[in-house]
Amino acid sequence: MTQRQSIPTGPQIEKAAAQHPGSGALPLDAAAGPRRPGPRPKRGVPEGLWLKCDGCRATIYRKEAEQMLNVCPQCGFHWYVSARQRVDQLFDPGTFEEWDGQLQPTDPLGFTDKKPYAGRIVAEQKRTGLSDAALTGTGMIRARRVACGITDSSFIMGSMGSVVGERLARLVERATSQRLPLIIISASGGGARMHEGILSLMQMAKVSAALARYSAAGGLFISVLTNPTMGGVAASFASLGDLVFAEPRALIGFAGPRTIKATIRVELPPGFQTSEFLLEHGFIDRIIARKDLKSELARAIDYCGG
Ligand SMILES: [Zn+2]
């Protein structure tokens, strides 16, 4: 190769894409022709026997990724897991008991965006099998009883409406009265749920106030941030942990990078709003791979005398 700079050719672009996934160069499969607009990709490990990793673009045997708790065996990319899958991954078998599952979302504003909120709730419930975006309850993690809440980004982006806020507030209150360690695992790309207006914003204060009482009573709160944790969720309970853990390469922040860039008109540093960037800047305490999360939660509880 010569040192002469020239316009990169097709093969060079392909090589760059292979070496720097996510760098903006065309990915290999798109280089052959124009990208067709299509439906947004499904969350989680895509259907089919083989799948292409979003992290390293390697072709991965689906079963192998599933056995590794939906993590890429080549590069450690963490795919979405549902709240129910998370329960299976973390809790000793058969010990999880759901709290407040009977709370149902309503449509207090009669809100309509692309479709009426009331209809959206029913469709999301049917699609995800969840009644709202948070699952709360108690169970045993390596024989230690904990109170645990998990938000699920597949239900209206894991956004915090009245039911999510109420379930989490009750979770924290039960953890306080029963003197249980508290774990909240966030997967919320949506922040507050705009469909419920001011009522959804109030959930931030309600859950945070419950956490303040829990803290005053001496409780241990471990917040686990997973991809994505954004908006009003990141700006309230998710940031209030005594310990804040995160999964590798999770997107964590308030407003999205495009919004920030358009507002302040400054080039954002590389890795902005990732777990690794936030660990470096002191916003989170540890990055923990999914396979280690159960053991590390148990260890943290023991260490803190929970
Ligand atoms: Zn990978």
Task: Describe the fold and architecture.
- The protein has 306 residues and is of the alpha/beta class.
- The chain has two domains: 10-67, no CATH class; 83-303, 2-enoyl-CoA Hydratase, Chain A, domain 1, CATH 3.90.226.10.
- It is 35% helix and 15% strand.
- It has a seven-stranded mixed sheet, sandwiched between helices. A two-stranded antiparallel ribbon has the order 1-2.
- A hairpin with a 6-residue loop joins strand 1 and strand 2.
- Helix 6 packs parallel to helix 7.
- It starts with 9 loop residues before the first helix and ends with a helix.
- It binds zinc ion (ZN).
- The site of zinc ion has 8 residues, from loops.
Distance between the termini: 61 Å
Annotation, overall tally of beta strands = 9
The ligands found in this model are: zinc ion
Superfamily at the CATH H level of the largest domain? Answer: 2-enoyl-CoA Hydratase, Chain A, domain 1
CATH topology of the largest domain: 2-enoyl-CoA Hydratase, Chain A, domain 1
- Mean pLDDT equals 88
Largest sheet: 7 strands, mixed
What is the helix fraction of residues, given as a range? 25-40%
